[in-house]
TrEMBL record:
Segment forming the signal sequence: none
Cellular component, GO annotation: cytoplasm; microvillus; myosin complex; plasma membrane
GO biological process terms on file: actin filament organization; actin filament-based movement; endocytosis
Family indicated by similarity: Belongs to the TRAFAC class myosin-kinesin ATPase superfamily. Myosin family.
Organism per entry: Diaphorina citri (Asian citrus psyllid)
Residue ranges of domain Myosin motor in the record: 7-70
One GO MF term attached to the UniProt entry: microfilament motor activity
Chain coiled-coil ranges: none
Keyword Glycoprotein: no
Pfam families from the UniProt entry: Myosin_head
Protein name, entry field: Myosin-IA-like
UniProt key word ATP-binding: yes
């Protein structure tokens, strides 16, 4: 799995400075690395990738089923 340094911060609460530019830069970085889900605390932000991603198969369902984010 790639590091947050390469793919952006996965929870906006952890941004060192919260501005619209930092928010959009982080969202863009994550999107460009195929990370369409990003959190703001317990809220999940999703970006439509406009392409098929292999993230909805049984492997992913099993990996995340019953898991708590936090």
């Amino acid at each position: 799995m790639a590091s947050e340094e390469n793919t952006g911060i996965r929870d906006f609460v952890l941004l060192d400075e919260i501005t619209i530019n930092k928010f959009m830069d982080n969202l863009r970085l994550r999107f460009n690395h195929g990370q369409i889900y990003t959190y703001i605390g317990e809220v999940c932000v999703s970006v439509n990738p406009y392409r098929t991603l292999n993230i909805y198969g049984n492997d992913y369902v099993t990996r995340y089923k019953g898991k708590f984010h936090g």
